[in-house]
Amino acid sequence: MDKVEATATVRDFDPISGSIPATKVEITFCSHISLICLFSPSVIDNTLNPDFVRKYILDYFFEEKQNLRFDVYDIDSKSPDLAKHDFLGQVYCTLGEIVGSPASRLEKPLGGIPGKKCGTIILSAEELGNCRDYATMQFCANKLDKKDFFGKSDPFMVFYRSNEDGTFTICHKTEVVKNTLNPVWQPFSIPVRALCNGDYDRTIKVEIYDWDRDGSHDFIGEFTTSYKELCRGQSQLNIYEVRGDKTQRAQTQIHFTVAIDFTASNGNPSQSTSLHYMNPYQMNAYAMALKAVGEIIQDYDSDKMFPALGFGAKLPPDGRVSHEFPLNGNTENPYCNGIHGILEAYHQSLKTVQLYGPTNFAPVVNHVARYAAAFQDGSQYFVLLIITDGVISDMAQTKEAIVNAAKLPMSIIIVGVGQAEFDAMVELDGDDIRISSRGKLAERDIVQFVPFRDYMDRTGNHVLSMARLAKDVLAEIPDQLISYMKSRAIKPHPAPPPYSPGDKPQTNPV
Predict the structure, then answer these.
(1) Which residues contact 355 (CB under 8 A, 6 or more apart)?
(2) Burial 138-154 (b: 16+ CB within 10 A, else e)
(3) 457-490, pLDDT tens digit by residue?
(4) Residues 6+ apart with CB under 8 A from 458
(5) How far is Cα 390 from Cα 217, in angstroms, rounded to an integer?
(6) How far apart are CA 304 and CA 469, in angstroms?
(7) How far apart are CA 482 and CA 487, in angstroms?
């Protein structure tokens, strides 16, 4: 389990009245399937483009679908009852969608009001470092620029932490000091990880504004610094030079491929006893396994286009047996749009191909391995899901394919459906004895096998069955990915400098 920090920004929403701008904007945040509100709301005064300071610290599980909902309101009274305020829009997503987006930054349109454009919400997430230090700081300024025609400025400071994609996320606001060009702000304490996530060299941007009652705060100026510089106590300077060439954490793109068993041992799809039988009221085991795993892992694939293959069937028009055919019938472009697209292609294939045999895994393993071999720099990682009902026929060839694939950025998930014995699958899993081929051991353990029957809920709750299955089969993927990176000495990001007593934060004016 990791912890991530989620941040919300809203852009370009329309106030309820075109003549009266929003007085306050509130965001509520709900988590998990039950959508219970886990956090108190965050409120921003007088703006149509709010950057919410509130951070949401969440437990993050790669193997689980963690549903989120963000609601935005126009707050025009002190009532805590949101039903008494104007609803501006909402968005649903999963934590995996945010984490899996480029630079972990997801932009989605707000909805919930028919016929109205509600604006856009930008959600970002970052894994929290282990740094648990707090910094206590105090700032002052001299001879700030005067922004008010009558009287002096009312300055306040806004602190931003830099993100991996070069953008900035607000992390702290000071109080407003009224009617002065030489403000002295109150000391404040802030977690170091909120400022820089434990990276002492990461850029911190500070902007100074003149507060205005209507929310149109006037920009006075800005400077950039870092936590390391703040710790050195550069009290004589109030402007720092911007540093370039900041190292960014590498982001690995995950590619998901599914391969489905079309051998005759599954039974005639037109009969209710078949594992491929399409019950109009209930998904079969193949569809449930695909949906359970795919709906979680798709959040980490940016284009949501997935190759979907079948094996062990006779194909039209000549009855040729294939162990590597595209479910959509397009050999040049086997990609399906999302998990829904894979399910549609799977259903269509059952109407056009003839279930046959034998049960050969090696062709689909080698298919994905060919793509993985072209991306060994850590930028891409490939996950193959094989769903099967029976005893494997090409054990020696499959072992060789897996041993070769273990050197590549690749993992294999095998889900067994039906009541067959799966002894060979347990051997491929390699948890007890690492598999080998021709005297060569697999470099890594890349196979995870589970029989779906072990996850069937006794009460018939298929949603619960699917969640249990996904949790177990996906739990090993992060460790397998990391094991590949370590085996190739691929480092995601330089570690922050070690903490030492001499690095204690000081209380320094700027």
Answers:
(1) 262, 263, 264, 266, 268, 269, 276, 312, 313
(2) ebebeebeebeeeebbb
(3) 777 777 888 888 888 888 889 889 989 998 999 8
(4) none
(5) 68
(6) 21
(7) 8
Give phi and psi for 265, each to the nearest 5.
-65, -15
DSSP E strands, 61-113? 67-74, 86-94, 105-109
Pick the CATH number of 131-249+494-510 from 3.10.520.10, 2.40.420.20, 2.60.40.150, 3.10.580.10: 2.60.40.150
For the cut 80, the answer to whether the pLDDT of residue 18 exceeds it is: no
Give the integer Cα–Cα distance in Å for 250 and 241. Answer: 26
131 or 402: which leads in pLDDT: 402
Nearest-5° angle of CA 401, CA 404, CA 407? 145
Question: Which CATH superfamily is 253-487 part of?
Answer: von Willebrand factor, type A domain (3.40.50.410)
Strand partners, 28: 71
Global pTM?
0.65
| Alpha-carbon distance values, 334 to 64, 108, 289 (Å) | 27, 28, 20
